[in-house]
Amino acid sequence: MAEKHTKTNKTIRPPVVVILGHVDHGKTSLLDFIRKTRVAAKEAGGITQHIGAYQAEAGGPSASSGSKKITFLDTPGHEAFSAIRSRGCKVADIAVLVVATDEGIKPQTKEAIKIIKEAKTPFIVALNKIDKEGSNPQRVRQELAEQEVLVEGYGGNIPIAEVSAKTGAGIDHLLELISLTAELEELSASDQGPAKGIVLESHHDSRRGTVVTLIVQEGKLESGNWLAAGNSIARIKSLENFLGKPANQALPSEPCVATGWETPPGVGFSFEVFEDRSAALKSAEAVTTIGPAQLFAKEISSEEQKTPKRVANLIIKADVQSSLEAIDHILRTIHSEEVDYKVVAYGVGKITDADIKKARSTSAAVVGFHVDMDSSAKQMAEREQVRVESHSIIYELVEVVRSIMSDLLDPEVKRIPVGKMKILASFEIGLKSQIVGGKVTQ
C-alpha cells in the first residue's frame, strides 16, 4: 500500500466493492464467510435492511503479493431497496453479481445487471451455492448470456467464480479476481489534504445524537474536521472505524462512523471538509434549494380530485434514513380505487410520546420499522386508543398499511342462503307475530 504514482502524487487505494444479487441468493452469507462474522443471524428474516460497509483482507502471508485490503459495501437485495442498491453501485469501483446456481436469474438479478451496466462499473460474477442439490452452473451461464452478460469461457471476458458461501469453496479465487480487477483499474487517490466522500447511512442515537456512516474517497478525514454534506454540517466529535473502534483518521476507501452533526445529512450525498464552520455553512446553504425530493410526497391527479378517496393517515418511524426511502418506494406500489394513504409525519428513531400526540390529533396510525417504543408512549397509545404497529420485515409493514386502509372501507354485505322451506301453513298469534309451518326442500 506504500506504492506511489510519482506524477500524480497519489497512493494506490483499496477497491470499494459492492455485492449485488437477488434476495436469498447468498450475498450476506458470502460476506459472512469473508469477514468471519455473522450478519445474517442479526437481521430479521435473514435480509440485510440497510447499507453497511466493511473491510476484509485478500490474500495473506502465503499469497505472492501479500495481504491486500478490500472494502465491501453490503447493499440489500430485496426489490424494495432498489434506490439504496443503485446508490451503492455508484459509490463502488467493482461490483460482484451473486447468482444462486440452483435458482438462476431472478427479477432482482436483472435489475442489478441493469444498474451495473448503467453505472459502467467493472464487475465479476459469483455463482453461489455450487454445493447445493439442483445446482446447475452451466444453465446459469446460458441465462446470463441471454441477459448479454458474457462470462469467460462462454464467449466473453467478464470474470466468473464458482463459490459456496457455506463451505468457502472458491472464495479465495473470487478475492483474487477482485484484486486483479482492481489492479487493472489502477485505483488511486491522494491520502493528504481535506477529505471528500459519500454519506452511506445516518441514524439517531439517543446517547450520541446523529450518527453517520461515511466512506472516504479522497484525502484524510480527521476528528475535529468541519464538513458539509448536502444542507447538513458537522464538526466531527468522534470517529470510529467499521469495527466500532475509536479512530483518529480515515483514509481513501475506508468506511467510518462520525458524530457531531447539527442535522442529519441525506443518504447518498457527497461530503467535503472545510476550514471552519462558516465555510461549511456557506456550502450547505448553497445546496439547500436543490436538496433531495421530499419523502412520501404524493401528487394528486385531476381524476382523483374529482372522485376523492377515503384517506388513512400514517406516521412512519424507521431506524435509519435509507429505510424511510425504502418504505416510501414500496408504499407507492399500493393502489386502490376507493382508499388511499397520507403520511402526515415521518422520522428516524424510536416511537415517542410526541408521535402518539401527533397521531391522536390527526387520527393517524403509527407504523414503525426496526424501532422500539418508549414505555410512556406505549401507555399513552393504549389510553388514547392510537393504533401502533412495529415490524422488522418490510413485507409485514406493507400488509399492515393495507390493513389500515381496508378498515376504512364499508363492510360488504353478502346474502348466503343456508336452506329453503316450502310454507304449508301459518298461524297468527298477535299483531306482529306468527307461527309458520312448512317442509324443508333444500
Structural features:
26% helix, 442 residues, alpha/beta, 31% strand, globular, 6-stranded antiparallel barrel
Notes on the structure:
With 442 residues, the chain is of the alpha/beta class. Helices cover 26% and strands 31% of the residues. It has a 6-stranded mixed sheet, sandwiched between helices. It is globular, with a radius of gyration of 28 Å.
Question: Fraction of residues in helices?
Answer: 25-40%
Trace the largest sheet across and list its strands.
4-5-3-6-7-8
Instruction: Give the rounded overall mean pLDDT.
Output: 84
Termini separation: 88 Å
Roughly what fraction of the amino acids lie in strands? 25-35%
Quantity of strands, as a count: 23
State the oligomer: single chain
How do the helices and strands line up, and which of them pair or pack?
Elements: E1 4-5, E2 10-12, E3 16-21, H1 27-35, E4 52-58, E5 68-74, H2 82-91, E6 94-100, H3 107-119, E7 123-128, H4 137-146, E8 160-162, H5 171-185, E9 188-189, E10 196-205, E11 209-218, E12 221-222, E13 226-229, E14 232-241, E15 249-250, E16 255-261, E17 270-274, H6 277-286, H7 302-306, E18 310-318, H8 321-331, E19 339-348, H9 353-362, E20 364-369, H10 375-384, E21 388-391, H11 394-406, E22 421-428, E23 434-440
Helix pairs in contact: 2-3, 9-10
Quick synopsis:
The protein has 442 residues and is α/β, with parallel strands linked by helices. The protein has helices spanning 27-35, 82-91, 107-119, 137-146, 171-185, 277-286, 302-306, 321-331, 353-362, 375-384, 394-406, and strands at residues 4-5, 10-12, 16-21, 52-58, 68-74, 94-100, 123-128, 160-162, 188-189, 196-205, 209-218, 221-222, 226-229, 232-241, 249-250, 255-261, 270-274, 310-318, 339-348, 364-369, 388-391, 421-428, 434-440. The protein contains 11 helices and 23 strands.
